[in-house]
Design goal:
Layout (H helix, E strand, L loop, with lengths): L1 H20 L2 E5 L2 H4 L7 H11 L5 E5 L1 H10 L4 E6 L9 E2 L4 E9 L14 E5 L5 H10 L5 E5 L9 E5 H4 L4 E15 L4 H38 L2 H8 L3 E4 L9 E3 L4 E3 L1 H13 L2 E4 L7 H9 L5 E4 L5 H4 E3 L4 E9 L11 E4 L3 H9 L5 E4 L2 H9 L5 E4 L11 E15 L3 H14 L2 H41 L4 H19 L9 H11 L4 E9 L1 H8 L1 H19 L4 E5 L2 E6 L4 H14 L1 H5 L3 E9 L5 H16 L5 E4 L2
Parallel strand pairs: 1-2, 1-3, 6-7, 6-8, 10-13, 17-18, 17-19, 24-25
Antiparallel strand pairs: 3-9, 4-9, 5-8, 5-9, 11-12, 14-20, 15-20, 16-19, 16-20, 21-23, 21-24, 22-23
C-alpha cells in the first residue's frame, strides 16, 4: 500500500515537472528586478505575463552571473533582461524590444566631463552585458587609450570609473552620458517559436507600456530610497517639518526666464526645483513678480524671505553665502559680425553689473569696455557698430541679424543659501544627486532656452517690422518724390514681416505664427503632434552649420508635404509642432514612417525623429494638447530613433 502511494506521488511530481521542463525561466534577483512598486516587481510582472499567455514554466532564481551561466549551458531557456549584443556568436532568439536605457560613465570620486578625460584611465563594466566592444569602439573613434575591465559586481568599484545604464549609476556623484544602451529583450534558446510569438503579442497588447512605466517607477523609487538613506538624523527631522519654501527666479537669464504665454518660468533652475519639490512633496512659492529687478530679489534673499538663489561664485559672495554643488555650466558668448576685425582699441559691450561685466575685466582694458543698462541697448550698440562685439550668456542673440557667436568663457552655476541654512543646503545637494534626472534635465533646459530665445528674437523683429511699416506710410504721404526710397523701404518691411511670421530655413511658420494659429485651433478637435530631431546637435557640431541647415530644410519639406504648410510650424532649432485633423492621421503617420526610411539626407547624417502626439477633443485646450504631445515626444525619445508615442 505504502509502496503504491510512493510510486503514485513520484509519478505525479514527475509529470508536473515534465510539464514545466519545456520552459525554465531565469529570474535575476538584483535590486532593480526585485524592487516592488505597487506590490509588484519586474519579476512578478514577467511571471504574470507568462501566466496570462498560458505558458507553463519552472522558475530559477539567482544572481545575474548565475542566471547567465545557466542560460548559456541550456539549463535555463528564457531570460530577461538581456540585449541582442550580449552573447555574440551564440544562437539565441529574441523578443521584440522592451525598453532602452541611457549609458553613463559614472563615479563617486572621478568627475568625468568628457570623453577625453578617460585617456589613461581604467573603466569597469559588468560581465555578460555585451557593451565591451561598443565601448572599445567608441574609445577608438575618439582616439582615446583606456583600459576596459570586466567585473562581477560594479558596486565594489563605485569610487573608480564604471560604465553602465542609468538604472545603476543614477545615485553616483558624477555621471556623464555617452549614448543609449541597446534595447532590452527576452532571450530564448529553445526550439518552440510559439513562445516568442506569445511574448510579443503580450508586449504589443499591454506589457510594453506596463514594463516601461514600471521601469520609470522603479528608478524613481530607488532614487528616493537612496536619497532618504543618505540623510542624517538632523536632516530627516528638518525635512519632516518643511512643507513649503519661498523661491525666486530671474525673468530674463539662461538659468531661468519668464514665459508670458503660460505665466510660468523656464530654464534649468525651475526644472530642478520642480523635480525635487515633486519628490519631496514640497510646495514651491515663487514670490517675486516678473521683472521685479535683481537687486530687490537679492535683498529679499538676504533678509531670509527667499530660500535660495541661482548665482555664480563671484569673489566676495563666498564670504556672504554658502553654495550648493554645481548645477550646470553656463557659457558666456562673444557675438560679432562675420567680417569684424578687432584691434587694440576695439570696444566690447556688456550689460552693467552682469556676470559678463565681471568677466570682461579679466580680459579687456577698462577703457575698452562699454556698459549698457539692458539687452536692447546692448544689441542696438552692436548694430550701430558703437562696439565691435558684445558678451552675453545667450548665443541665440546672434540669430537676429546673422551675427556669429563663439564661446568666450565658461563658469559653473550654483544655488546660494544663507549661512544659517546649512542643513537645507546639504539636503538640496543630496536631492540633486539622487532625485534629479540629469539627462532629461539637460534636454529640457536646452529646449526651454531655445524656445525662449527664439521668442524674444522674433518679438523684437516683429516690433521693428511695425516701426518700419509706420515709417513707410509716413514717407508715402510726406515725401512722395522719394519713390525709389519708399519702394526699397517697403521691400525691407516685407522681409521683416516674413522673418516675423516664417522660419527662413524651413519656410514653415514660426513660433509667432503658431501662437496666432492657436486661436483657430483652440475650438477644434484634431491631433497635436510634437516632432524632435534625434542626433541633430551631433551632426551640426560634427559636419558644420551648412549640413545642419540642409537637415532642417529636408525635415521641413517632408513634414510640409505630408501634413500641409498651414498646419506645420518650426518652433525651435530641431523641434516642430503640427496640428491636423484626425480623419487622415493614420495614413499621414504611415507616410511619415515610410518617408523617414527613404530619406537619403537623414540617413546620411544618422538623423531620426522622436514623435509624440495627442488626440485633442473640443474640450481640451490647444496648449494643453501640445503639452501632452510634448510629454509623448520625450517618451518616444527614450525608446529609439524614429519612434512614435501616443500620449493619453
Amino acid at each position: 500500500m505504502y509502496k503504491l502511494a510512493a510510486i503514485f506521488i513520484f509519478l505525479f511530481f514527475t509529470s508536473v515537472t515534465a510539464l514545466g521542463d519545456n520552459l525554465n525561466i531565469g529570474l535575476i534577483t538584483d535590486e532593480f528586478m526585485e524592487k516592488k512598486v505597487n506590490k509588484k516587481s519586474f519579476n512578478d510582472l514577467i511571471l504574470e505575463m507568462l501566466a496570462e499567455e498560458s505558458v507553463e514554466f519552472n522558475v530559477v532564481k539567482g544572481s545575474r552571473n548565475d542566471i547567465t551561466k545557466k542560460f548559456l549551458t541550456g539549463d535555463i531557456n528564457l531570460i530577461f533582461p538581456i540585449r541582442k549584443n550580449d552573447f555574440p556568436g551564440i544562437k539565441i532568439s529574441y523578443s521584440d524590444n522592451v525598453y532602452s536605457q541611457i549609458l553613463h560613465i559614472a563615479s563617486n570620486k572621478e568627475n568625468i566631463r568628457n570623453m577625453e578625460a578617460l585617456s589613461g584611465k581604467t573603466l569597469y563594466i559588468l560581465r555578460n552585458t555585451g557593451i565591451k566592444k561598443s565601448i572599445q569602439k567608441k574609445l577608438r573613434d575618439n582616439n582615446i587609450i583606456a583600459n576596459v575591465e570586466v567585473v562581477d559586481d560594479l558596486k565594489k568599484y563605485s569610487n573608480q570609473i564604471i560604465i553602465d545604464s542609468s538604472s545603476f549609476t543614477h545615485d553616483l556623484n558624477y555621471t556623464f552620458m555617452i549614448g543609449k544602451v541597446p534595447f532590452t529583450v527576452f532571450g530564448y534558446n529553445g526550439e518552440n517559436p510559439d513562445l516568442l510569438n506569445k511574448i510579443n503579442k503580450a508586449l504589443e497588447k499591454k506589457y510594453f507600456c506596463i514594463f516601461n512605466n514600471h521601469k520609470e517607477k522603479v528608478e524613481q523609487t530607488l532614487r528616493k530610497e537612496k536619497f532618504f538613506y543618505s540623510l542624517t538624523t538632523a536632516e530627516k527631522k528638518y525635512l519632516e517639518n518643511l512643507k513649503e519654501i519661498n523661491i525666486a527666479y530671474e525673468e530674463n537669464s539662461t538659468v531661468s526666464h519668464y514665459i508670458p504665454e503660460s505665466k510660468s518660468y523656464g530654464g534649468v533652475l525651475p526644472l530642478v526645483w520642480n523635480e525635487i519639490a515633486k519628490d519631496l512633496d514640497l510646495k514651491l512659492n515663487i514670490i517675486n513678480e516678473p521683472y521685479e529687478g535683481w537687486d530687490k530679489i537679492v535683498s529679499r534673499f538676504e533678509n531670509g524671505e527667499i530660500k535660495s538663489l541661482g548665482v555664480a561664485k563671484f569673489p566676495g559672495r563666498e564670504n556672504k553665502y554658502i553654495f550648493s554643488n554645481k548645477l550646470t555650466d553656463i557659457h558666456t558668448y562673444k557675438i560679432y559680425k562675420s567680417d569684424c576685425k578687432e584691434n587694440v582699441d576695439s570696444k566690447i559691450g556688456v550689460i552693467e553689473e552682469s556676470i559678463e561685466d565681471y568677466i570682461s575685466k579679466e580680459y579687456y582694458p577698462k577703457e575698452n569696455i562699454i556698459r549698457y543698462k539692458n539687452k536692447v541697448e546692448l544689441i542696438d550698440a552692436l548694430k550701430r557698430e558703437d562696439v565691435k562685439s558684445i558678451l552675453h550668456v545667450n548665443p541665440y542673440l546672434s540669430g537676429i541679424s546673422g551675427y556669429n557667436s563663439e564661446i568666450f568663457y565658461s563658469f559653473p552655476i550654483n544655488l546660494a543659501f544663507n549661512k544659517e541654512d546649512i542643513i537645507f543646503k546639504n539636503i538640496f545637494d543630496k536631492a540633486y544627486i539622487y532625485l534629479v534626472d540629469k539627462d532629461l534635465l539637460k534636454e529640457k533646459s536646452i529646449e526651454s532656452d531655445k524656445r525662449f530665445s527664439a521668442l524674444k528674437v522674433k518679438e523684437a523683429e516683429y516690433l521693428r517690422g511695425l516701426l518700419y511699416r509706420g515709417v513707410l506710410l509716413f514717407l508715402i504721404f510726406l515725401v512722395f518724390v522719394l519713390g525709389v526710397f519708399f519702394v526699397e523701404k517697403r521691400k525691407k518691411a516685407k522681409d521683416l514681416e516674413k522673418i516675423a511670421f516664417f522660419d527662413i530655413l524651413s519656410t514653415l511658420g514660426n513660433r509667432y505664427n503658431f501662437n496666432n494659429a492657436c486661436e483657430e485651433f483652440e475650438s477644434k478637435s484634431g491631433v497635436c503632434i510634437v516632432v524632435d530631431l534625434d542626433n541633430f546637435k551631433n551632426a551640426n557640431d560634427t559636419f558644420g552649420h551648412s549640413v545642419g541647415d540642409e537637415i532642417i530644410k529636408e525635415c521641413g519639406l517632408l513634414l510640409k508635404n505630408i501634413f500641409g504648410e498651414k498646419n506645420t510650424f518650426r518652433i525651435s532649432g530641431d523641434e516642430y509642432y503640427i496640428f491636423v485633423s484626425s480623419e487622415n492621421f493614420d495614413s499621414q503617420l504611415n507616410e511619415l514612417k515610410d518617408t523617414l526610411e527613404r530619406s537619403y539626407t537623414l540617413k546620411k547624417y544618422s538623423i531620426s525623429m522622436s514623435v509624440g502626439y495627442f488626440f485633442k477633443t473640443f474640450e481640451t485646450g490647444i496648449l494643453e494638447g501640445f503639452k501632452k504631445a510634448d510629454t509623448g515626444m520625450y517618451r518616444a525619445k527614450k525608446i529609439s530613433g524614429n519612434s512614435f508615442y501616443c500620449e493619453r
